[in-house]
């Protein structure tokens, strides 16, 4: 049993110990070292992952070999290539570890089983998905805003802890600015 | 009863006639003319909307008065300011009608009631939210890709019907290019 996972779920919905034990039995665990891949482009994606410890990045590599960061994930966040996971299509993004990571793994089949068996878990994942949806909308507004300082301020406001842990190169990439531009931005 | 809504829900989950009648009773309907607002910035957002007929845009206006399009919605799509709707905060985007619109309105309270009472509806909205999440990820990859022709091709592949109905000015804005650049792009 992972008490952090129980706390994570109970932020949204209460579970009895027996229910949580059952939910917990549907997860496996996985450890990865810094720089290891969780998902590689073109691979099959059968799982989503909840971060117990560590930091990861999901990104697309364009034809010129330049990487475009879709999202980061740290403790208490979920990550996978959701498109590939949902549609059973090959991954179009890669996910690798910025730090050593400990993850809990939930397969598509186990997730559907849980959501069909436990009404509270269906509602938990519905609400988590809504939160993720809104986070992506924020990310889009961040991308649409052409002023790098405002993008930086917005990211700082949304995720001050994330900002402290990110290597500057990745932060610059996420904000879509050069390292030089990043160094000229004032700390909010 | 709206048979299109029943079909829409039953793409994901079967409902008995009695269940659908109950679900349907939780919606009200709304008609808006072209150019009318569905959501204005800073207003309260208590509802989400399912498009029976018409086309809308959700957008943010920056300090220079320039609009940045977050999403479009046409028949069979859901739209609202999801951040404001979920978090009970003032709207940070506006939504208005590109064409005359007929909408079905679902309040936050009625949605939660339905999701708590009907397991199938909780799963329906969970899956719809997942689909929306993936669509936003696609939108982000579209924004990150700096090649306008590829962005155009990707949008065409995702939504050929939408593309035909959009005024060229809005299409250019969505792709983040000028009208001149748009006119030079080749039709996929």
TrEMBL record, chains A, B:
Residues 30-116 form the Cyclic nucleotide-binding domain. Pfam families: cNMP_binding. InterPro entries: cNMP-bd_dom, cNMP-bd_dom_sf, RmlC-like_jellyroll. This is Crp/Fnr family transcriptional regulator.
């Amino acid at each position: 049993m992972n008490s952090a996972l129980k706390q994570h779920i109970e932020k949204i919905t209460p579970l009895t110990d027996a229910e949580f034990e059952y939910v917990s039995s549907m997860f496996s665990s996985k450890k990865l070292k810094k720089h290891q891949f969780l998902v590689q482009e073109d691979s099959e994606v059968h799982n989503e992952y909840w971060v117990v410890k560590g930091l990861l990045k999901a990104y697309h590599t364009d034809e010129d070999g330049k990487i475009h960061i879709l999202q980061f994930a740290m403790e208490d966040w979920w990550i996978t290539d959701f498109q590939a996971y949902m549609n059973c299509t090959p991954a179009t993004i890669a996910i690798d570890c910025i730090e050593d990571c400990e993850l809990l793994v939930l397969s598509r089949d186990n997730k559907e089983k849980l959501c069909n068996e436990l009404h509270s878990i269906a509602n938990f994942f519905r609400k988590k998905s809504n939160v993720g949806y809104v986070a992506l909308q924020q990310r889009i507004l961040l991308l649409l805003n052409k002023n790098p300082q405002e993008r930086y301020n917005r990211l700082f406001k949304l995720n001050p802890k994330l900002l402290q842990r990110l290597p500057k190169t990745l932060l610059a990439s996420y904000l879509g600015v050069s390292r030089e531009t990043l160094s000229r931005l004032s700390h909010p």
